[in-house]
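stage 2 :: seqdesign
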C-alpha cells in the first residue's frame, strides 16, 4: 500500500473525478480530499468510496442499499435501540400452502369472525395485510397476499417481516409441490411453522396420512415425536380456528416479539396499487418506529411524504406502531412488494437517496465492468 489520489481512484474505478467527489458526499471524513490531487491516506476511506459507488473491493462486503445508517447521514439523530423502551408487538403471520388448499378461505374466516365481532361491522375492501383481534385480547397480523409472491419478494430483498408461517395443507390432497416449496422457504428463513391441516370436513380427509406425508420434508408434528404444532381445521366451516389462533399466540409468546416504537421508522411494503380516487397507495407493515403523517419515507426507488394513513378497515389513523398493517398515501412513485421502507429526515434527503439508488442500479454491462475495476484496485493496493 503506497498512496492513492482522488484522481488515481477515479481512474481505477473508471469514473470521473466528479463522480468520486459526488460519492464522497456520502462518506464521512472525506472533507480533506477536496482536489483531484488530494492523497487519500486511508484504505478504509477508499473502500468506503468504492463500496458506495456500487462497486466492491474484495475486502468490502457488497453495498447494502437498505443500510439505514448510510442513507440517514445524520445517524445520531436517531436514538439507538434501548431495550427498556421495547414493547410487545403482535406476530406477523404469513399463510402459505399449495394452490386451492384453502389459504384465502382461512384468512377470510379469521377476518370475518373478527370483523363481525368488532364494533365496525361489515366487510371492507381487500388489502394485503390485516390484523385480527382475538377473543383473548391478543392481536395477530396476517399477510394476505398471494403468500408466495410476497414472501419471495421480501426474501429476495432480504426483508424479514414474517415471524411465523401457517402452512395450510388440505387433508384430502396431502403434501403437494407448493407445500414442499413453502416448507423450504420457511426453513431457509428460520421462521417457525404451524401446520393447519385443512378441509377436515371432507369425506376424503385423511389427517394422519397428511401428518406422515410431512415427515420426509423435515416437519415432525407433535404426535410424531416432533415439536411442530399441527391443528386440524375446516376453514370453510370455521372448525377449530380458535385452536389454531391459540397455537399462533402460544408460538408468538415463546418468541417474545418486541418492537421499538421510537426513532426512525422502518417497515416493508406488502403491496402497492393505484386507487382511482386516492392515488398511489401502498400497504405496509411497520417494523420499527411510529409512522405518522408528514414522515418522509424511501422504499426501493420510490419515496413518499405520508399524506394520510388508513388501517385495514379503511379508516384514517394518526399513528402506526410496529407490526401494524397500514395503507400509506403520498407516494410519488409506487414502491414494490418487499421493498424495505426507511424514514429519512427530509424531502431533500429522499431526493438524494433516490438519485443515489438510481445511480447504483447497475446494468449487466456495468456489473462486468465492476469485476475489471476490482482487479485494477487490487493491483493498485
Ligand atoms: P390459491 O389462492 O389459488 O392458492 O388457493 P387457496 O389456497 O387460497 O384456496 P381457497 O381458499 O381459494 O380454497 C380453494 C377451494 O377450497 C375453495 O373452493 C374453497 O371453498 C375450498 N375450501 C377451502 N377450505 C375448505 C374447507 O375447510 N373445507 C372444504 N370442504 N372446502 C374448503
Ligand atoms: Mg387464495
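stage 2 :: out
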Amino acid at each position: 500500500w503506497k498512496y492513492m489520489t482522488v484522481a488515481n481512484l477515479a481512474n481505477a474505478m473508471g469514473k470521473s473525478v466528479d463522480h468520486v467527489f459526488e460519492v464522497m458526499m456520502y462518506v464521512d471524513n472525506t472533507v480533506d480530499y477536496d482536489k483531484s490531487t488530494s492523497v487519500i491516506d486511508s484504505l478504509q476511506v477508499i473502500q468506503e468510496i468504492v463500496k458506495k459507488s456500487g462497486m466492491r473491493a474484495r475486502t468490502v462486503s457488497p453495498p447494502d442499499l437498505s443500510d439505514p445508517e448510510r442513507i440517514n447521514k445524520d445517524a445520531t439523530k436517531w436514538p439507538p435501540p434501548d431495550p427498556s423502551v421495547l414493547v410487545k408487538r403482535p406476530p406477523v403471520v404469513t399463510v402459505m400452502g399449495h394452490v386451492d388448499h384453502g389459504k384465502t378461505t382461512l384468512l377470510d374466516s379469521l377476518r370475518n369472525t373478527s370483523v363481525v365481532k368488532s364494533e365496525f361491522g361489515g366487510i371492507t375492501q381487500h388489502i394485503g395485510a390485516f390484523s385480527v383481534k382475538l377473543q383473548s385480547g391478543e392481536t395477530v397480523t396476517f399477510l394476505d397476499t398471494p403468500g408466495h409472491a410476497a414472501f419471495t419478494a421480501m426474501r429476495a430483498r432480504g426483508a424479514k417481516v414474517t415471524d411465523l408461517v401457517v402452512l395450510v395443507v388440505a387433508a384430502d390432497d396431502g403434501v403437494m409441490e407448493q407445500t414442499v416449496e413453502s416448507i423450504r422457504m420457511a426453513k431457509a428463513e428460520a421462521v417457525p411453522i404451524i401446520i393447519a391441516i385443512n378441509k377436515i370436513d371432507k369425506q376424503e380427509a385423511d389427517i394422519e396420512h397428511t401428518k406422515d406425508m410431512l415427515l420426509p420434508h423435515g416437519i415432525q408434528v407433535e404426535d410424531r415425536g416432533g415439536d411442530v404444532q399441527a391443528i386440524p381445521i375446516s376453514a370453510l366451516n370455521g372448525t377449530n380456528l380458535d385452536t389454531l389462533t391459540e397455537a399462533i399466540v402460544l408460538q408468538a409468546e415463546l418468541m417474545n416479539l418486541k418492537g421499538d416504537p421510537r426513532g426512525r421508522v422502518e417497515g416493508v411494503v406488502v403491496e402497492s396499487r393505484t386507487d382511482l380516487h386516492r392515488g398511489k397507495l401502498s400497504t405496509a407493515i411497520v417494523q420499527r418506529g411510529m409512522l405518522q403523517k408528514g414522515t418522509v419515507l424511501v422504499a426501493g426507488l420510490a419515496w413518499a411524504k405520508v399524506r394520510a394513513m388508513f388501517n385495514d378497515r379503511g379508516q384514517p389513523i394518526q399513528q402506526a406502531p410496529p407490526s401494524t398493517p397500514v395503507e400509506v398515501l403520498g407516494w410519488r412513485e409506487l414502491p414494490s412488494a418487499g421493498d424495505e421502507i426507511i424514514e429519512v429526515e427530509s424531502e431533500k434527503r429522499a431526493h438524494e437517496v433516490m438519485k443515489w439508488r438510481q445511480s447504483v442500479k447497475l446494468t449487466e454491462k456495468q456489473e462486468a465492468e465492476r469485476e475489471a475495476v476490482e482487479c485494477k484496485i487490487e493491483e493498485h493496493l
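stage 3 :: structure notes
- Residues 56-69, 73-77, 116-125 have pLDDT under 50 and may be disordered.
- The pocket of magnesium ion (ligand 2) is lined by residues 103-104 (CB under 6 Å).
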